[in-house]
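Run log // design_07
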């Protein structure tokens, strides 16, 4: 039964990955056609490289070489992030930075209604308030501009920390040599660099996701019962942070619990593990809620008046998939939470009826998924094109949509995306045909299934996939590791 359920999960993962791959190829045809022609040659080149035995002599070990490459990456990332920063603190990212700065500079928060409407941003606001108070203590003359510049550095640090976790997880799973190549693969993921300037829940959620994956693998690999309890408790605590910070990260928590149930060694151990995780999750959630309420004192009446119900995002997604200001205005026109929810449900039924069965199938499985998975920059070019500080700069020529060299960036990221998905597909095939009882990245594959399903019914945006990129790099690296191992075993057998 365990093997059957595992195979079913891997089969669904492969089907979804096939759809994503077709969407990515279609995007290449329309945005970077030359990449479609080059991709087979790039993949064949990678295949041929697997027959080469790369040896690095001591004292220049793989770990030392990794740190050299990583240091160069960090230097470039900071230069790049400050060069491509935007002028206007727009959308939710800018709103939270401005609100946190306002709290530190004036001691007050004027627009509480925003956080009552979008309570998912409260925890990140509290984090930024704490950090900006520290900046103010070190630099008393700091104003909004200095807080914004510091937030860019903070965003870069979170991306770098996520990549370090990725490398460490790869070393735990496959050893230093393969971890080195997995880490290098991540360093060349340009969309990560494009999103590093944004200190928001996308970059912080990425870090929390990698921490959750690390804790999950540590708990799974722990030999002693005490180690399993410790890492399970830490997993529950971090899961609560993920839930309050970025709900899409919580998909991994659900995926991990599904895998825990599938792979149960005994009902007793599974029940103990689940209870421990849920206990720590609930307790941490209460602590976080109390702490946030101390920083942002919002009463129940304001929440009832301003909070958007979950049904709003489902209703809004039925237009074209993305954000619709008119739908926000429509939902907010009703005075109470319950009235908003009832109005949303009524509108959802109306829009589904208008689309019909075939229209809904096309919309959910094609239109929305193209908007989610069809951009190899993951909306990076779109967001960096919004009032760049230096529109005529060197990097802007590559990263902005109107830049003279943007076509070259699209060619690169399209090829990278193709290589990334090919590796994920190889990993899915190896997992599906394999007989391993313990697949350490099975929870990661279930997570991809979860995010695909969520984007079918929720507001979708390529930006929402950014935080999953390190996980996707690990899944892709697993595929290439499996292929290399299989080729060497085949050659050894003659």
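design_07 sequence
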């Amino acid at each position: 039964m365990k093997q059957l359920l595992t195979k079913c999960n891997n089969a669904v993962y492969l089907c979804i990955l096939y759809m994503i791959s077709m969407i990515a190829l279609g995007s290449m045809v329309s945005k970077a056609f030359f990449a479609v022609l080059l991709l087979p040659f790039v993949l064949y080149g990678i295949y041929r490289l697997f027959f080469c035995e790369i040896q690095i002599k001591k004292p220049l070990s793989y770990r030392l070489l990794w740190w050299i490459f990583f240091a160069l990456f960090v230097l470039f990332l900071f230069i790049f992030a400050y060069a491509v920063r935007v002028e206007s603190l727009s959308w939710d990212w800018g709103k939270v930075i401005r609100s946190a700065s306002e709290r530190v500079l004036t001691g007050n928060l004027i627009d509480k209604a925003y956080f009552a409407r979008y309570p998912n941003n409260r925890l990140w606001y509290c984090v930024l308030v704490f950090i900006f108070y520290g900046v103010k203590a070190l630099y008393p003359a700091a104003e909004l501009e200095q807080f914004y510049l510091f937030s860019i550095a903070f965003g870069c640090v979170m991306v770098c920390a996520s990549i370090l976790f990725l490398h460490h997880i790869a070393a735990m799973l496959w050893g230093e040599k393969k971890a080195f190549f997995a880490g290098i693969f991540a360093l060349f993921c340009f969309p990560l660099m494009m999103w590093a300037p944004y200190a928001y829940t996308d970059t912080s959620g990425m870090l929390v996701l990698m921490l959750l994956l690390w804790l999950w693998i540590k708990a799974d690999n722990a030999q002693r019962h005490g180690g399993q309890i410790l890492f399970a408790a830490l997993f529950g605590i971090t899961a609560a942070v993920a839930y309050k910070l970025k709900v899409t990260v919580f998909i991994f928590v659900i995926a991990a619990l599904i895998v825990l149930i599938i792979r149960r060694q005994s009902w007793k151990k599974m029940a103990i593990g689940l209870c421990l995780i849920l206990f720590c999750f609930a307790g941490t959630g209460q602590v976080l809620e109390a702490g946030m309420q101390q920083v942002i004192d919002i009463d129940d009446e304001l929440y009832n008046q301003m909070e958007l119900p979950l049904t709003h995002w489902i209703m809004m997604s039925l237009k074209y998939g993305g954000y619709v200001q008119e739908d926000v205005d429509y939902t907010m026109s009703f005075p109470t939470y319950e009235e908003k929810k009832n109005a949303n449900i009524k509108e959802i039924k109306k829009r589904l009826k208008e689309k019909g069965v075939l229209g809904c199938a096309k919309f959910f499985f094609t239109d929305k998924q193209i908007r989610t998975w069809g951009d190899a920059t993951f909306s990076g070019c779109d967001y960096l094109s919004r009032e760049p500080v230096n529109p005529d700069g060197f990097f802007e020529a590559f990263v902005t949509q109107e830049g003279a060299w943007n076509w070259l960036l699209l060619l690169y990221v399209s090829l990278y995306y193709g290589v990334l998905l090919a590796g994920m597909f190889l990993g899915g095939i190896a997992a599906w045909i394999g007989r391993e009882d313990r697949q350490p990245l099975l929870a990661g594959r279930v997570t991809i299934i979860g995010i695909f399903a969520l984007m079918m019914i929720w507001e979708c945006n390529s930006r929402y996939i950014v935080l999953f990129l390190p996980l996707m790099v690990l899944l892709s690296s697993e595929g290439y590791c499996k292929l290399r191992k299989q080729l060497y075993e085949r050659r050894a057998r003659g």
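The mean pLDDT is 91.
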